[in-house]
Write a structure and sequence with these properties.
3-stranded antiparallel beta sheet; alpha+beta; 119 residues; 5 strands; 2 domains; 46% helix; two-stranded antiparallel ribbon; elongated; binds zinc ion
Length: 119
């Protein structure tokens, strides 16, 4: 989860250095935080409520690569133990897709938990 705020001067999307599971976790520094726009240099206070979360592409790619490795491993094991046809496709296809879907659902829940709650 990466946290962003839009510059009020030039509308540039600013990637913040914050790491927080929820908006309330950002409150330790107060309801506002000072941010400098790397695009126009504008420095001002932003409400914590203006910060929004988006999914990290690293998490998505890591999940995708891990599920691909699991799919290839399961398919190899299915062939090794002479499980052809539906069993091989089932093992190599359904389980990784299930894992990928669960991880994505958890990520989306984290995002909506952050973005839907204001402080
Ligand atoms: Zn700006």
């Amino acid at each position: 989860m990466i946290l962003f705020v839009n510059c009020q001067n030039c509308k540039h999307t600013i990637k913040t250095a914050f790491h927080a599971p929820g908006r309330k976790s950002l409150l330790s520094g107060g309801k506002e935080t000072e941010i400098t726009c790397p695009n126009c240099g504008d420095h001002r206070s932003y409400s914590i409520n203006n910060i929004y979360a988006e999914e990290s592409p690293v998490v998505f790619l890591t999940t995708f690569l891990i599920t691909m490795v699991i799919a290839i491993t399961l398919y190899s094991l299915a062939l090794k133990y002479d499980l052809h046809g539906l069993y091989a496709v089932g093992a190599a296809g359904v389980i990784p897709v299930l894992i990928f879907s669960i991880v994505n659902a958890v990520q989306k829940r984290k995002l909506s938990k952050f973005n839907d709650v204001e402080v």
